[in-house]
Design brief:
The chain is of the alpha/beta class. It contains 6 helices and 9 strands; from the N terminus they run βββαβαβββααβαβα. The protein has one domain: Aldolase class I (TIM Barrel), CATH 3.20.20.70. It has a 9-stranded mixed beta sheet. Bound molecules: the ligand Nc1nc2[nH]cc(C(=O)O)c2c(=O)[nH]1, iron/sulfur cluster and magnesium ion. The site of magnesium ion has 2 residues, from loops. Catalyzes the complex heterocyclic radical-mediated conversion of 6-carboxy-5,6,7,8-tetrahydropterin (CPH4) to 7-carboxy-7-deazaguanine (CDG), a step common to the biosynthetic pathways of all 7-deazapurine-containing compounds. Pathway: Purine metabolism; 7-cyano-7-deazaguanine biosynthesis. It is an enzyme of class 4 (lyase).
């Protein structure tokens, strides 16, 4: 994968990581807070580093830090929870080549595997058994220019597209993108408001007025626990 030279410092946290290992920020079990799997117990594997810098990012702590673990160690820890659902998130999991083998090995073990990805890196090689939950970045994220639209051609009907909306402008952009690409007919579409600045009741009203058949998503974990809590 090639990234613009000016952005390479964003991947510094992965420099020197041995081949065959993963830089893991944290592994924990919680309730899935997003997607159509919301509410189910889920093991989260949060991988270090992201090539994006969304202005409203709620996990900037995952940009760096964490520890190097072998694939065997990560698989063993996940399976050890005895939980049938696992999600790779970050950061951006697909920046680490080894994420592909991790997803395949987890699926081979019988896990239902979810992948949270930013929509700015290719999903082409993701194991077809994985449920991809892919962002399309709205203008208010500051990363809209980096959306990789070709990814739409690699998603399956069972995959999910998430728009995180920071303003009415973002909402209008989202409606236009859904209509232009027929997203609501091809995939599950999730509309989420940036936690804090956008009242979900306002987004609910916009959604109903639009007539679109898409799903409002509340980040369940931010209502159950402190919005800034980590490890949940
Ligand atoms: N409970 C919980 N559910 C989540 N779903 C997606 C998450 C993420 O950070 O990608 C997340 C998270 O951080 N916590
Ligand atoms: S893609 Fe996700 S982890 Fe990366 S900056 Fe945006 S919100 Fe944060
Ligand atoms: Mg998150």
């Amino acid at each position: 994968m090639l990234f613009p030279v000016v952005e390479n410092h964003r991947l510094d946290a992965l420099r020197g990581k041995p081949v065959g290992s993963l830089m893991v920020h944290e592994i924990y079990r919680s309730l899935q807070g997003e997607s159509t799997f919301a509410g189910l117990p889920c093991v989260f594997v949060r991988l270090t580093a992201c090539s994006a810098r969304c202005v409203w990012c709620d996990t900037p702590h995952a940009f760096r830090g964490g520890k190097v673990l072998s694939l065997d160690a990560v698989v063993g820890e996940v399976i050890g929870y005895g939980c049938p659902l696992v999600e790779l998130t970050g950061g951006e999991p697909l920046l680490q080549e080894e994420s592909h083998e991790l997803m395949t090995r987890l699926a081979d073990s019988g896990e239902t595997v979810l992948l949270e990805t930013s929509g700015t890196v290719p999903v082409e090689r993701v194991d077809r058994r994985v449920h991809i939950i892919m962002d399309l970045k709205c203008p208010g994220s500051g990363e809209c220019e980096n959306n990789l639209w070709s990814n739409l051609g690699w998603l399956k009907p069972t995959d999910q597209i998430k728009f995180v909306i920071a303003s009415r402008e973002d909402f209008d952009w989202t409606v236009a993108a859904i209509r232009e690409h027929g997203l609501d007919r091809r995939f599950t579409v999730l509309l989420s408001s940036v936690f804090g600045p956008v009242n979900p009741a306002v987004l609910a009203e916009w959604l109903l007025d639009s007539g679109l058949n898409v799903r409002l998503q509340l980040q369940l974990h931010k209502y159950i626990w402190e919005p800034n809590a980590r490890g949940v």
